[in-house]
Amino acid sequence: MGENIQNNENDSVLMERYALVMERIYEIPKEKGCSEAFAEYFATVADFVILLEDTGSFLSAEGQETAALEELKKRNHALYEDVLPKNYGTSYANPAYAAEKLGEEFGRMLSFLYCEMRSLIPFVYEENLEEIVIRLELLVEVYGAFACAWQECLEYRERGVELSELPKAEDVRQILYWFVSDYAETATEAHLKEMLVPDGNFAVNLIKTADLSDERYLFAYGEYVSENELETARFLASLPEETIRTMADTYTEGYRIGFEVTNKDLSKKKTVEIRYRLGFERMMRVAVENFEKMGLQAVCYRAATSILYNPSIYKIGYCGGDVNRQYDFDHKDDKALFWDKIYANHKLEVTRTAFEKYREEAAVYAGPAVVETFGEADFAPENKAVAFHMSEEQSKLLVEHRSLMGELQRKYIREEERSFTIIAFPVPEIQEAFGPELLAKLGMKDTKECYHAFFNEVIRINTLDYTLYRDIQQCIIDVLDAADYCEIKGMNGNRTDLKVNLWKLSDASKETIFENCVADVNIPVGEVFTSPVLDGTEGLLHVSRVYLNGLEYKNLELRFEEGKIASYNCSNFATEEENLNFVRENVLFRHKTLPMGEFAIGTNTVAYVVAEKYGVHDKFPILIAEKTGPHFAVGDTCYSHAEDVKVYNPDGKEIVARDNEISKLRHKTPGKAYFNCHTDITIPYDELGELTAVRKDGSRVIIIENGRFVLPGTEQLNEAFCK
Predict the structure, then answer these.
(1) What is the pLDDT of residue 519?
(2) 284 within 8 A of 256, measured Cβ to Cβ
(3) ∠ CA(183), CA(187), CA(191), 5° rounding?
(4) pTM value?
(5) Least packed by Cβ within 10 Å: which of 164, 261, 344, 689?
């Protein structure tokens, strides 16, 4: 796709393969190689590949450096136009449309194939010829199967014999299966290299060298660039250097403190993995410099779009704008096409091989430092029967595989030696939640002014005085350490009625149950948390509306028995089956049940009041939302895979409640000890009737009542409600 690729790859074999496959693809739209409906599909996909060819030539001619902003916008839009919501109804990337045109069986397979062709976009920008060639050869191979069947049909028809115009569906599935299987090793090694090796990192190089005063740099990634990314970059460009440095320093210092408070030696590490959304490069440049001063080189990988890199509706890595979340949702289970025990075992083996190759780099990997965004438009997914869905057997196999992959990774990246941090900022799209009434109430002229004010409020939330919260939270911990269990009851339509059993201390002078969480790994400040005792933990957890990992849940209900989910539901969809499947897939992550891995009390009333002031409670990410009321995590504990590492509160007491009855199985049956998921669900203050610590003798100490802190020593938390 241009001279640049040839010069960089210097691989005549790949170039020859590329020339041959492109020659064949150029012919597809010109010929009638299969029945009409399928000919139209293959012509459409071929035209998209030809558009990519043109993009490669444009980049080779230094178009990225010389073209006007409007041309870059136009080209970027052209690459993603087909899957934008307004066009998705008639896109072959939509499995429902593909099934309508091509039949259900072939439709969803060919929709999958088109998505794989769409994953070529970033590889063109990275000038990665091998990734390009293998996918184009896949397209030609599948097209060949249809063309051969069509030609054979015509030949036999002349002899008076009728054959199917189409190949056998299983033959097409096998072509796709072996593509995924054959290139699993190459893709796994490439992913680990991008994750662990700083040299030549595509995104980090852009962060360090791009002219950030010229927003054209955003189009150099090959990611979709929406107004969110453009407006974010413009807004950050308008901020004083001091503000940018405050944002970056909070982020990187939180990362450093995360190692300090858990007694982990940061000096052993050499790389830090950064994750961010386009538009935040000015902050990320300072952060990269800060990390380098700590002795850490930044690495960064792109959120996956190709099936070979395990794409997800949860964008992990750096990414551009959300093109179409329904598109991501429709293809979340595409692995059902090939997921079986043979492939799962193969994937495990190639991952082990790749980790062996990068064993030294894995040992000095410090963990991820994540910049999340929030404020995007609401998304309520539509379930499509024609999309791929994992069978019960596949789901069970996937759960087992995730556990084995987790164990394998921890062998090379030791959990007790790594850490992480997460911070979140709003994107400009949140302005859509700022109506005329809010502007009038706040005395602001337009939504842009409102967004800027809100962004500054989020900076304030992220940089609150941790010493103030540390001391107030210690008052709460002192009461909880003396408790037998806690009771939590909802109000204002919230039906929560929970009893959470607590760890029993052996020596209260040296031990504590709850961690006093200040602004380190989870920014902002504001919670105390523990691993509850499962035996005796029971009741109903209910939230009327909550967003978890970008998905909205209406009337989410989880009923616990012996600390584990006994039943669950929501009211998102018309049928109970759809609701149960939605919760099972996206909250339980296909497990039959999950334990309550965490019980926490959020104390960040400032964040709650800011959300109330701007009317954005439903927009806050769980990172901030979990600090605005009590929350309960289902899945592993907060100390997952590091339970044996001693952790201390600022007062010097050891946090001993790092285990529960399930995680203790790790010593004998580690495969049953972990679930490899952890999802926080928060009850906001305005739905919280009571949170009470109950002592062994039955005496009760109320901590929160009717949404306000009533425990002596915590009154200052209520001041935010009065402003």
Answers:
(1) 64
(2) no
(3) 175
(4) 0.89
(5) 164
